[in-house]
Amino acid sequence: MDDVLGGLALLLVAAAATAAVLNRDPARQAVVLSLLGLALAVLFTVDQAPDVGLSQLAVGSAVTPLMILLTVRKVRRIHRARRRAEGADDGGGRTG
After folding, report:
1. pLDDT band at 54 (very low <50, low <70, confident <90, very high)
2. Does residue 93 come out as left (phi exceeding 0), alpha (psi in the -120 to 50 range) or beta?
3. Beta strands in 6-73 (DSSP E)
4. How far are the Cα atoms of 55, 76, 77 from residue 3, in angstroms, in the given order?
């Protein structure tokens, strides 16, 4: 039974890692990275390393994706503000 759970956990890790790599949007990558962290936590727990699994659950599934999402949000907000400022500098895009 442990072999089956270990194999399923390994397949889940491989699928989540592939999805994270193939995704282009950073916000979606962060969500998939969270799922990858959860899958790794399950894998570590199945492999009799619950302490490592708990650490992975906290850091890999929660903290790191949250930091990435907050960074992406801030970068997008700055980018939007710069575009608005550039639009205001040239008269709002109107020709006169």
Report:
1. very high
2. left
3. none
4. 23, 44, 47
| SS3 of residue 91 by DSSP | coil
Distance CA 28, CA 51 (A): 28
Residue whose tokens read 């850091």: 59
Alpha-carbon distance of 61 to 82, in angstroms, equals 32
How far is residue 95's CA from residue 3's CA, in Å, rounded to a whole number?
70
Q: Which tens digits make up the pLDDT trace of 13-50?
A: 999 999 999 999 998 999 999 999 999 999 999 999 99
Q: Residue 95 — left, alpha, or beta (φ > 0 → left; ψ -120 to 50 → alpha)?
A: beta
CB atoms inside a 10 Å sphere around CB 39: 23
Which residue bears the tokens 């727990």? Answer: 45
